[in-house]
Amino acid sequence: MSEHAISAAQSARAERIAARTRGDNWKKPPRRIEASECITCDSCLRSCPAEFGAIFDRGLDVIIIPELCSGCPACVLECPVDCIYVDEDWTPTEDSVWSHVELSADAS
Description:
Elements: H1 3-19, E1 31-33, H2 43-47, E2 55-57, E3 62-64, H3 74-78, E4 84-86, H4 95-107
Antiparallel strand pairs: 1-4, 2-3
């Protein structure tokens, strides 16, 4: 990926974080992690494309921020326990989680 493309992807992610909304052109629903099945190996987190950066480790659990998830299968393909599902009925992310997301975005 060129420097310009990386910069544009980071900018688009920052805009989604600021607006707390999903990409308008995303056709697929976001993914979700079933906490009761997850072994917290972080394979999904490492495989999530940087331009989305939708997966976060919260210590005891790993979560996907639906507003940042494009619905691509990158995390699903890496999950050793198949605990990542399509989330047709996703709900907006809580403010407390967004505080963590915004702190993470500032650090990058």
